[in-house]
Amino acid sequence: MTAYTPDSVPAPHRRAFPKSVFLACYGYPLLFILLHFVFRYNKFYQSLRPLHRFQLRNKLVATLHAAVATFCAIRIAFLSDWSQLHLIYNDHPETKFVSGLELGYLFQDTISELYKAARFGIYDKVTLIHHLAFSTGLVYYLVIYGGPAKGDYFIALILLMNASTPLLHLRWLFEKMNVVGARLWSVNIGLIGLFFTCRLYMVYFMYWIYAFRHQEPWYMTMFRIPWFCSVFSSALIILNGGWLYALCKRIFSKSGRCEAPVIVLKPKDPSKAL
């Protein structure tokens, strides 16, 4: 990374879809299909209903993506020396790759949700809203925006929100395996804590670190950063706050069985929705 100085003119943002977008769009669906053959003779997998088999493979793909995205985000944000670099105008060589991977994952997972709605008559409302909002922000960042601000450090912090995904899906798996007691509750409490830290507190941390660099109160950050960053960070707080509320409501409800609110459609074949 080349340090940006106040006297230098930052290079404009290069507008293009990274190749990793296409890697995710083709690679993750292929992995989803391969998992069906990998688990073909697994007794637990065969005991699941068609909808749950579909969800299990989808959640395994999501967990793999979350692990890769979290690893890359940690490398960018915490294993690179940003002490002498500008948090807005400096870039990182890995940011475009992981951003493209995230966009490709969101695109194929949205298609997967729509397919699930058509086949099984059920879909996650929060997931769809989250994916559409996040995809819009990434498309704007990668393709539409052409200004000098890169914001790679903050992009990495946003992508760290993926860190809560493995526990989210582990909770679902525990419920399908009828795991109860301390193990389930340890996952539930860990999930709530990690979800809050990665998806809500992280937004405050981004504001704070930017304000700290400029020796200003943290709440002034919203008026210093580009307008679309303020809009996007506000949307993250609203969406993830609503998701956390729904998650807590279902965890502490005796009848809660899903990690996000779902809408049930009238299935073509009633047996497939079970």
TrEMBL record:
- The membrane spanning regions, by residue number, are 20-39, 60-78, 127-147, 153-174, 186-210, 225-247
| Family annotation (SMART domains) | TLC (SM00724)
The places in or outside the cell where this protein is found are: Membrane
TLC domain span: 51-256
Question: Can you list the GO cellular component terms from the UniProt entry?
Answer: endoplasmic reticulum; membrane
Cross-referenced InterPro entries, in alphabetical order? TLC-dom, TLCD
Protein topology in the membrane: Multi-pass membrane protein
Give one Pfam family, short name only.
Answer: TRAM_LAG1_CLN8
| Keywords carried by this UniProt record | Membrane, Transmembrane, Transmembrane helix
For this entry, list what GO says about its biological process.
lipid homeostasis
Organism domain of life = Eukaryota
PROSITE patterns given in the database record: TLC
Name this protein carries in UniProt: TLC domain-containing protein
Task: Tell me the organism's taxonomic lineage.
Answer: Eukaryota, Fungi, Fungi incertae sedis, Zoopagomycota, Entomophthoromycotina
